[in-house]
Amino acid sequence: MKTTLKLEEFRAPTKLKVSALWTSLMFLYVYGDYFNMYSPGKLEKMAAGNVGPVNAADETGMLAISMMMAVPALMIALSLLLPAALSKWLNVLFGLAYAAILAVTLPGAPLFYVGYGAIEIPLSLLIAWTAFSWPKTEEGGR
């Protein structure tokens, strides 16, 4: 009789799954923005105070952009550290919100940026779906 060996599987807890998804998303954001600086004329536009769709590198504009990008970065840790119920709904909310933000900022973007968006939008939606379908366990009982 022939024995077949199967690779051992690890079932990651939902908190770890969404944290890993946010981590992947942040890498894509960072690399997309980094490579965008190589677009012809981009550095000159940035030096002149134009920073993408909002076109305002004043203190208020930069604060808004910074806070917008702080949320996904913080969600890496918050997904692991917050109570499950709060983590679930924040992941659903921000996963959907960032998919929408990406969809709004893609028109007119360079082709490589659209390629990143084609990965980032489904990844953001996967974060929301993974959190929304968070498994439940029985509470209490003897």
Query: What overall geometry do the principal axes of the alpha carbons give?
Result: globular
Mean of the pLDDT scores?
91
Q: Helices and strands, in N-to-C order?
A: HHHHH
Total count of helical runs of at least 4 residues: 5
Helix percentage range = 55-70%
Q: Low-confidence parts, pLDDT < 50 over ≥5 residues?
A: none
* Category by helix and strand content: mainly alpha
3D architecture notes:
With 142 residues, the protein is an all-alpha fold. The protein has one domain. It has helices at 14-36, 42-47, 59-81, 84-105, 111-132. The model has no long low-confidence stretch (mean pLDDT 91).
How would you summarize this macromolecular structure in one to three sentences?
It is built from five helices and no strands. The protein is mainly alpha-helical and 142 residues long. It has one domain.
What's the structural blueprint in terms of helices and strands?
Layout (H helix, E strand, L loop, with lengths): L13 H23 L5 H6 L11 H23 L2 H22 L5 H22 L10
Task: Please describe the structure with a list of short key phrases separated by commas or semicolons.
142 residues, mainly alpha, 5 helices
